[in-house]
Prior knowledge:
eight-stranded mixed beta sheet, 23% strand
Amino acid sequence: MPDMAKKTISDIFIIGGGINGCGIARDAAGRGLSVTLAEMNDLGWATSSSSTKLFHGGLRYLEYLEVRLVREALTERETLLRAMPHISWPMRFVLPYHKDMRFESDTPVSKLLSFALPWMKGRRPAWLIRLGLFMYDHLGGRKILPGTTTLSLRDTPEGAPLKTKFERAYEYSDCWVEDARLVVLNARDAVARGACILPRTQVIRTTRRADHWDIETKDTENGRTTHHKARILINAAGPWVGDMIEDVLDITSQDRVMLVRGSHIVTPKLFDHGKAYFFQGEDGRIIFAIPYETDFTLIGTTDAPHENPDTRPVCTEDEQQYLIDFANQYFRDPITRQDVVWSYSGVRPLFDDGASSATAATREYVLKINAEGGAPVLNIFGGKITTYRRLAENVLAKLAPNLAKPTATWTSGVALPGGDFPVDGVEALLQRLKSDYPFLTDRWAARLIRAYGTEAWTVLGRAQSKEELGIDFGATLTEREVKWLKAEEFAQTAEDILWRRSKLGLRMSAAEVTALERWMAAPSAST
Length: 527
């Protein structure tokens, strides 16, 4: 039976628990607004856990002249780095150069150069790359990250894994981020500031009134329905934003979303240093090869049309082979399909601006408010993980006329849970954790610091031995940590823990995964 309709009216109800939805919930709750968020699955389970794991400005977007987007993203890198130094850290990127590198043919810059310098025949000249990197260094007011340098690939660690034809490279800065953990930490901070976060809760019906929305949700685990009221509705459903407009919100909109599938493969570690590679293909496209989870290399991404958001994206055999062939243009020792230990794919919901291809579609986020016929709804199209905080600020600025009282921005520089230590303080934190818990191995302690930062002590509690942490599920995952993830980070299944709260699924055997699944399903797991 449905429950009784709630008497209270939230200021804001958010549909979608990805990074945009959770970032908005945190920002709004911190301004004193009452917020409810519903996510039909686990937090961050779709696009927001399937990224290339980078806080980056988007170097290639300069060829599309998306200067405003790149500037905003570059500025945000260091703002975010200061707020989450446990789950984000600086990374140097090596961009090997060769005279045969080409532009993508449909970028504004390539069209301009083809007209002005036809004898280049689409080649990407070194001077233009250096100009782009100069802009990349200076557009965002960089203070922490080092600038671009020129690098020899002869007899250097960076050149060792590459083919000998690559003799020089440019090296520049961006940042790594644990994307799924970023979502959960924003949700946790939103809850700490008064928000109500409802994972595995699907919005099934809405009714617009003159001064509020009536919203009906369904618990996807037990089918129980609940009624909510909110003065403002925010559609942050990501790939489902269009479906929500047509099927649930029942409003008229000419705006459309373009679904683009980005796929990645993971292989055993392909090089021994901690820098990433930015590879340019002869077709003008780019991919990254990034150090991943200590023992692996992450390679991606693709840009392929994806028709239906309800079709779970997978990295197809053709996409895997594309990434392998692309990487093999650079690596001295070729990789094969047998080297792929894991693959994943996510759907990017880009604003449909009429671009000729998925690659050319704008990465700018677009906010559209509809207040025709009653209470307002704001629909979000697109967005990059790097600019989620600024998107949240812009959402609330756009909604300001509909809010009962003025609110001020506050999130810049405010640490997420566990991130209250200096950007360069990871090593000191690690040594203190190992001193306080001598039974931790180096790898175990490093994983805990990178996942939880200063909250690692809360996770471990007063344990004085490994045995006091309960069941050892494998790969340093213990019963104590699992219970903490269930109680504090919304985890309900083994998949939530092994592939979103962590990536320990890469290290655990099938038997260990089964044991965790059985433990999670047991009635005692809820206590």
